[in-house]
């Protein structure tokens, strides 16, 4: 039978019979069947409508079923579904032009991949070949993807069971004032000490062994820690001083999420390589890529780049990217995201924090926010352990869902990451539901 029209109970049964799930003990998996989606809403198999404050895995930046993107995929499918990557095609050429147009200055060439992890794998490969050096430095509390090297570079618990063949990855602490690794009490102190720490790690590892520093411009899944002003510029300066390349991972933070086309533009810093995926086409068809600056590009001007993918720049994915970016331009989606941050999420969540003891810190920008939940504000004891969960977190998520909100939960945090196109009213509704759910869950388990 046709997949989309399959009876939802049957879809669930077949899933449990045949589908092997990501990051899960298979016997415990209990997926929500999504039968329908529209803008910021999804419907489950019982007919419940949920306001999607996750953008799935933070990728439906334009919401679900955007007609411009659906139309572009249909039109491209009717014209030319696929070609080998060695050929040129209009969808890929135009997607590359539009991505380069909005990228930091000088990042003018695009290598397309299928998603974020392989974008990071290729960026690291490029950096190693360009510098002739083996190591990659990345921060604790980061996520760079589910393939071997991208996981070695990752700084969250998903790395642990996969760190069997760690190839030249070294971790350092980034700025995170709420749980400072440097006992800093101000943003400035945190920034200075984090940079001094990184400089020491570089010195002790040996600058001549380090190809790249790989950094999410704003760490996403790890907790949306917006870096203090000056941090990214400081990292850029260290990279320049020691001949190290800066790779900005903008897989989650890019394409408007942080209120700029790319989050690193908040600090006017230009990386040597920038990786993207997710929001580039709202995730309608898998797509990622690496943006290259002139220096790395020149390395491969006369010498072949030893890497490639069957679907590098798939026409359906690139057509979706063109339509996504054109829609973002036409509708002022990036400025709208910035405004939602300053007008709705910033004040709305500060208000929430004033009423709920569980909220230890609110942080974010644009449509990229996290609530750090604690059992005790003084000790900052997390409401769930690092990399784990707790009855209180489970109850909070359930309380949100019962009230029609799909929240993004990670350890002791709730992330508020809806589509950038959400209306102010919908955003307020989501915050109100979270308010009620916090009251209910805290009354039960607080
Ligand atoms: N980098 C970051 C910052 C991410 O958030 C993710 C995915 O969540 C990835 C890389 C990996 O992307 P993908 O799952 O498309 O391989």
TrEMBL record:
UniProt cross-references to CDD domains, sorted A to Z: OAT_like (cd00610)
What the entry lists under PROSITE patterns is as follows: AA_TRANSFER_CLASS_3
Which Pfam family, just one, is annotated for this protein? Aminotran_3
Q: Which domain of life is it from?
A: Bacteria
Q: Which GO terms describe its cellular component?
A: cytosol
Q: Which InterPro entries match?
A: Aminotrans_3, Aminotrans_3_PPA_site, PyrdxlP-dep_Trfase, PyrdxlP-dep_Trfase_major, PyrdxlP-dep_Trfase_small
Molecular function terms from GO: pyridoxal phosphate binding; transaminase activity
Q: Which UniProt keywords apply?
A: Pyridoxal phosphate
Instruction: Return the PANTHER family for the record.
Output: AMINOTRANSFERASE, AMINOTRANSFERASE CLASS-III
The UniProt entry's sequence similarity note says: Belongs to the class-III pyridoxal-phosphate-dependent aminotransferase family.
What is the protein's given name?
Answer: Taurine--2-oxoglutarate transaminase
Q: Identify the species of origin.
A: Tamaricihabitans halophyticus
């Amino acid at each position: 039978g046709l997949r989309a029209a399959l009876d939802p109970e049957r879809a669930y049964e077949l899933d449990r019979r045949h589908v092997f799930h990501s990051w899960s003990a298979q016997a415990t998996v209990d997926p929500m069947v999504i039968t329908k989606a529209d803008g910021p809403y999804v419907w489950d198999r019982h007919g419940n409508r949920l306001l999607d404050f996750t953008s799935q895995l933070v990728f439906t930046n334009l919401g679900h079923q955007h007609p411009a993107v659906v139309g572009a995929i249909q039109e491209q499918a009717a014209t030319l579904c696929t070609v080998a990557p060695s050929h040129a095609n209009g969808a890929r050429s135009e997607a590359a032009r539009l991505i380069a147009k909005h990228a930091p200055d000088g990042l003018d060439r695009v290598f397309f991949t299928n998603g974020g992890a392989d974008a990071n794998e290729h960026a690291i490969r490029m950096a190693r070949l360009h510098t002739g050096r083996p190591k990659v430095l990345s921060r604790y509390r980061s996520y760079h993807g589910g393939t071997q090297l991208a996981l070695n570079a990752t700084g969250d618990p998903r790395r642990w069971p996969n760190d069997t063949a760690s190839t030249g990855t070294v971790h350092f602490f980034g700025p995170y004032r709420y749980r400072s690794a440097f006992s800093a009490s101000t943003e400035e102190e945190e920034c200075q000490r984090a940079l001094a720490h990184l400089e020491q790690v570089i010195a002790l590892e040996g600058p001549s062994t380090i190809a790249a520093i790989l950094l999410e411009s704003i760490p996403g899944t790890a907790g949306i820690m917006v870096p203090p002003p000056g941090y990214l510029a400081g990292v850029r300066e260290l990279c320049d001083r020691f001949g190290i390349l800066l790779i900005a991972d903008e897989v989650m933070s890019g394409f408007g999420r942080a209120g700029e086309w790319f989050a690193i533009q908040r600090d006017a810093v230009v990386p040597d390589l920038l990786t993207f995926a997710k929001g580039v086409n709202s995730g309608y068809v898998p797509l990622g890529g690496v943006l290259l600056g002139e220096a790395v590009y020149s390395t491969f001007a006369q010498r072949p780049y030893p890497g490639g993918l069957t679907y590098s720049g798939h026409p359906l994915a690139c057509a979706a990217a063109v339509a996504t970016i054109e829609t973002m331009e036409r509708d002022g989606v990036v400025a709208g995201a910035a405004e939602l941050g300053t007008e709705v999420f910033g004040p709305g969540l500060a208000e929430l924090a004033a009423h709920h003891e569980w909220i230890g810190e609110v942080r974010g920008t644009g449509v990229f926010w996290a609530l750090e939940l604690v059992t005790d504000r003084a000790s900052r004891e997390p409401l769930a352990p690092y990399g784990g969960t707790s009855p209180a977190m489970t109850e909070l998520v359930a309380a949100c869902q019962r009230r029609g909100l799909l929240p993004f939960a990670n350890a002791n945090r709730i992330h508020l990451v809806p589509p950038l196109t959400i209306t102010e009213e919908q955003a307020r509704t989501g915050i109100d539901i979270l308010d009620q759910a916090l009251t209910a869950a805290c009354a039960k388990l607080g």
